[in-house]
Every structure is written in C-alpha cells, then in structure tokens.
Amino acid sequence: MPELEHSVWRPHEGQGVAVYGLHQNEPAQALQDFIEQTGVTFPVLSDQGTLGQLSFPAGTGYPYPRDVIIGKDLTIHSIRNSFNVEEVNALIEQLLDE
Amino acid sequence: MSRPCREPTPSPPPTGELGDSIVRLGEGSGAEIVAVDYDGRYVISCGGFGAQVDDVTDPSQPVFVTTAGKRCQNIAFGPLLEDGTRVFWLTHHGDTWVEEPFLNTYHLPPGDTGKIVDVIEDPKVLFEGLVWHQGHLFVTAHGGGLRLYETDPVGKPTLSATLGGFENALEIDVDRRHAYVADGVGGVKVVSIEDPDNPTHVGSAEPGGMVRDLDYDAGRLYLALGGDGVVVYDTADPTQLVEVGRAPAMGSVQSVSVDGGLLALASWSHIAVRDARNLQLLGTEKTEPLFNFEQDLGVLIADDLIVAGEWEATHLFRVVPDLIAPDIWLERDMIDFEPGVPDDEVVLVRNRGWRDLEVTNVWVDDAEAFAAQPTAFTIEPGGVAAVEVSFEPPHVSPNPVFAIESNDPDFGQAIETLPIFIRDSDALDVGEKLTEDFAFLSPTGDLDGLRGQVTVLAYFALF
C-alpha cells in the first residue's frame, strides 16, 4: 500500500486517476492505525463484497493484495495478484491517453 | 500469468557428477513465516505465531526449544553472553493483532526457554528490518527511515541516532563502515556508519522494481527485487555503486542470503542457489510436497547449510555444489480456458539445469476433457520445448491438474503440476465493464461518477 501511495497515487494525483484501498470488514481502529502508520492519502473503504465478484487466476499464490485497473469507459483492463509498479504505471498512462 | 526465464549467459557452464545439488536435511518449526535467522546453533523463524526457536545442532533433527512473542516481522541475533545466553531481538510494525509496533529484546540461556528482557513500543515507528553490528542495533522503520540503538553488554538497546531520507526502509545489512538499506521503490541507500552517532547518506542506486531485501558479502551487494529478480552491485566505492550482474526471478525473489560464494534465494514458489560471482543457477528446490500450497519468504545460507522459511515450516538443506542435474521450469503458473469453448493452450517447458531433462510422461487428470501432447521428449540444458494442452468440454473434474514427470531429481519437481482453471463465466473479468455493485465508489453514487477517469482498486487485508 505505501508503494501504491508513493509510486502510483501521488504521481498521478489530479491527473484523472482515482485510487481506492478496499478491505473486507477490518476493524475501524485497526484501519485508522494502518492509515496513520502508512501515510496513505487515497480513500480506504469497505469493498462492499465486490472482491468475490472478480475473476482471478487460481493457484498463483496468496490472494492479497489484488489490484484492478479500470479505464475511462468502466472497462476492466487488468486484474493482478502481484504489484509491479512499472507495469501498473505504464497501463495507467496508456489508459489516460485513450 | 507467464513466467519467462532468461538466464545470464553461462560463463562457462558448471561441471560435476549427476545428482541433486540441494539435499533435504530436516524440517523445523514455524507458522506464517516471513523471516529466518541462524547463529550456528539456533534457527529462529519469525511470523504470525511468534518467533519459533529450534536447536539445529543436528540439522537433520531440529529440536523445538521455545516460542517468543505472539507475532514478529523480523529477527536478529546479538551477542553470546559469558554464561552462554544468546541475545536476540524481534520487531513488528503493528497490525490488526499487534497493538503497538515493537522492538523487543530476548535472552535465551542454554537449556532454558528464554525470556523477554526489554520492550520498546512506539505507535509512530514501523519497526521492520534489523541487524546487530559492533555494539549497535540498526533498525529500519519504513518511511521513518533508519534508527540506531546502542546496546549495553546484555543487549538492551538505547536510541542513539536516527536518519531520514528514505522512501520505505525495509531491510538492512552492514559492513565495517556502511549500512545498506533496501528502500522499496526508493532503490538501495548507502549510509556511512563510521560515526554511529551521526549516520549520513553517502550513496544510492535504483535498480528498478522494488528492493525488498538485500545481503552484503565480500564487497558485493545482492538485492532481492521480487518479480524483477536479483541484481548485484560492486561496493568498492560506496558513493558510486556499480551494477555487475542481474538474474531473472522465476517466481518472486523475496529474500537473499550470501555466504561462501553461494547465493541463496527465497523465490516464493521455491528456493534457488546460484554462484554468487557469475550468478549461474546451480539448483532449485521446492520445500513443499506435490500439490501443497508453497510460499518461501525467508532464506539464509551459512557455509553449505540453507535455512528456508516457508509459510508453514522451516526447512533445512545442504548444498552440494559439485553435483549438477536437469531442472524443470514451466513458463506459466496456471492454464485457463473459457467454459464450454474447445481450445488449445501451450505450456513452455524449460530446462534451466546443466544435464539433459528427460520428460517421461505428460497428462491431465481429467482425461475425458483434456489431452496433452507430446508426452515424452528430451530438453538440452538451457533449452525449451512446447506442450499443447487441448480442452474438449465438458470437463468432469472441478479442479483439473496438468502434470509432467521428468528426471529432475528434486522430489518436489519430479512431477511438476499446473492448475487448470475454467473461468467462472459469472465473474467479472478483463474486458468486461464494472457493474452497479461498484457504484459506491462514485462521488455521485452511480457509475457515471467513475466515467472519464482511470480507476485503481487495491484490495488488501491487515495482517
């Protein structure tokens, strides 16, 4: 999450990119502590059950974190089980240009 | 997801007798292991259920000694006191189950189960990596940078200096005059510690990717970059690190350790051993048996002993560098098909070892719906072959498995497998549009509020 903050959210803030951290029923105080400790500034919300609606590759390791990138027309362009800063930013730049 | 493997050019290829170069010794304690350390007698594995301490005087028969703490993120051994008591420290950056981030000091007397002797808790400090050197404990603290503690003769730490200027300080190693910090996407930072009360930045490098672990040995710095593999720097001039080698991940390199000319890697799905000078792959080993979920996150090598921290246990191995063997690698980690649609997928099979890989059988356990060809072939060292997997629906098994049997001597790879995934036609997938269930993200309460922007959703859990 700190990497997402520093390498994706802050460089793109105000440029038509929105980032959301989505959790599944974590305790409120733990979430507040986490936000304070990690310094993330993008919204952190309950996922409202949406995690279970997403397709994801089976057998590729631990399910967290999972990143989904959506284009301007609400089309899902990427669902990943691993976070690669370069690949994420390259896709965001591509989608911003569309 | 593809897993290409492009090894450095051999220079020249290693020679030796045919055999498994990584020999399994024993299995120790551990649960949700994220880090390991070894002092010549004790192995400590750090994780979700505390620090599990094993006596590995005989590494083929680890003996459980004690559990320290409830959860820990990292561990470092300290001095051996005159009465034989071993000092060690544990850190944690705080999470749902750990109320306050901590740096705790423990004493482990011989024949005893040990005790905590000092507690440092601070909600504003994300204690993470640590290493003890010449009377000082060097601790990384994520965005909080570097913290130096002077340790008294029994190991109790007192804060003596701090240093900012880090992106995300995760792990650390030192030589006599410098500390090297794995700084996440900030690369690697070099800090002068000649005056421990006044540490100063003297150099840095950005290898690309995320630097999550490192190890210093004999004038070289080895960095773990997850899916971006391993990169090596020469540290002759710490102000100007020079890249001297790079190797692919084949998995995701989480931890590195170097000793005696050997580089050990914890690569999530397996462990690997490379020549530390030319980065040639000498052998790999799965720590978990067939079909078991595997997550190798911590590794340490000392002489020819490897301590591997897998999620559910600590595994000990002996490296025998004069043995070489074939080594199978499948360049994808799953096979997926659309439901109800006949199709073919290709699995590339690579031999990353140094003897011919003899594949003797290839199959899918649901033979009614799937077929694989060819079923027997030979791959030279460094070579690759293609296996075609055909799907004729309907499938019977809910979780079909592709399997390939070969002469790879690693017991966990003699039969290598891939899950076959028939995509859930009801689940949202790439190429489809968000549903109304995601409207809660929009400031307007409907999906139109998300149009016109690029949206990134990061699902996470606190643990």
Poorly predicted segments of chain B: none
Q: What's the total count of β strands of chain A? A: 4
What is the helix/strand order of chain A? Answer: HEHEEEH
Overall geometry of chain A? globular
Strand order of the largest sheet of chain B: 32-39-38-34-36
Q: Strand count, sense and closure of the main sheet of chain B?
A: 5 strands, mixed
The order of strands across the largest sheet of chain A is 1-2
Query: For the residues shown, what is the average pLDDT of chain A?
Result: 82
Largest sheet of chain A: 2 strands, parallel
Distance between the termini of chain A: 27 Å
List the helices and strands and how they pair.
The complex is a heterodimer of chains A (98) and B (463).
Chain A lengths: L1 H11 L4 E7 L4 H11 L5 E3 L19 E5 L5 E5 L4 H13 L1
Parallel strand pairs in A: 1-2
Antiparallel strand pairs in A: 3-4
Chain B lengths: L16 E2 L3 E7 L4 E6 L3 E6 L2 E6 L7 E6 L5 E7 L5 E7 L9 E7 L6 E7 L8 E4 L2 E5 L5 E6 L5 E7 L7 E4 L3 E5 L5 E5 L7 E6 L7 E5 L2 E5 L5 E5 L7 E6 L7 E5 L2 E5 L4 E5 L5 E5 L10 E7 L2 E6 L2 E7 L3 E2 L3 E3 L4 E3 L5 E9 L5 E8 L5 E4 L3 E3 L4 E8 L9 E6 L8 E8 L31 E6 L4
Parallel strand pairs in B: 1-30, 32-39
Antiparallel strand pairs in B: 2-29, 3-4, 4-5, 5-6, 7-8, 8-9, 9-10, 11-12, 12-13, 13-14, 15-16, 16-17, 17-18, 19-20, 20-21, 21-22, 23-24, 24-25, 25-26, 27-28, 28-29, 31-33, 33-37, 34-36, 34-38, 35-37, 38-39
